[in-house]
Amino acid sequence: MSLPKMILFDAGKTLVNYGEVPTTLKSIQQIYPYITHNPNGWTCEDIERKCSEVFDALDGCRAARFEVPEQTGLKLLFDILDISFSLPMEEIERIYGAHFIDAYPVEQAEEFLTYLHHKGIRTGVISNFIFSSSRLLEWLTNLYPNNEFEFVVTSSDYGIRKPNKLLFEVAVSKSRLSPGEIWYVGDKAAVDVAGSQSAGMVPVLYNSPRNKPQTAPDGVLSIHSYDELTKILEHMR
Predict the structure, then answer these.
(1) Contact of 172 with 142, CB cutoff 8 Å
(2) d(CA 197, CA 76)
């Protein structure tokens, strides 16, 4: 195993920790003033109930490793309710999403990203994420304002979810590197390790303290902190 030319990251529990999940009602309340057509007089509470029904149904698609973008789910919801807005759905999604996730950085991640930048190791992100890659980059930039991510690949942009190797192949193409020159750090063995390995990348299992302990497959590097990964890279140098 040689030093990577690029390290790609999962987002959730690898770069981003989530706090208490706000209620869907709060997000609906933020977009409600922009409604221009609501002939049935649906209230925020009415919309929340239907929202739960719609997104519970879409979870079956995600369980089958297909992604339904949040914007598509919202369009489905509001077309069923015959609700229209004064803003385009992309902007409605942005306002809705801004109040949907309470996020903060993973321990030591910022220092590790700075270390990689100083060492000339490129970085990027591949994530299962219901919002678009541009939206995820906005959140990541709020958390890591000095990030040097070259690209962000999300499942919502392509309709498929990790561990489908096609998402990783998109990243390989964007990197202009061979797969073996790229390491991928993620917190789920069955998703992140399996997916990156199937695409020829070098997987690294980040055993997040927010997950149950996982055993890495034979030959796969497993870490418990970014300081640990920094030491491994320094030793390889």
Answers:
(1) no
(2) 35
